[in-house]
Design a protein that fits this description.
Elements lengths: L2 H5 L10 E6 L5 E10 L2 E5 L9 E8 L2 E13 L3 E10 H13 L11 E3 L5
Antiparallel strand pairs: 1-2, 1-4, 2-3, 3-6, 4-5, 5-6, 6-7
Amino acid sequence: MSTRFARRRALRHLLAVDVEVTDLDSGIQIQERTKDLNLYGCGVNTVTPFQAGSSVRLKLANSGQEIIAFGRVIYGRKDGGMGIVFTMLAQEDQKVLNEWFILGRPASNHVVRGSVEHGGGC
């Protein structure tokens, strides 16, 4: 087993959803699609990645529902997009993500409540 695979804490879901990523330092915003997603982070298809270490806000949208997460860019490559680990994701948004993964459609009656902080890799 490779070291890279061993670090993953959750199954990657090949789920392409709309994502708006904002660099919190510069305010630069890009709109792209995810290439994979899990409860701890996501991969983003882009030819304009932010630098590794950048703090970002993500707005992920699927079938009319939107969730917000904060994260940190783990890697950014023009040929490979960028990987982002979530540093904060509200518990209700975690539930919505699980619904997207399990049911293949968004959860109903989404309400943002408490938040959970994450650390580590995606």
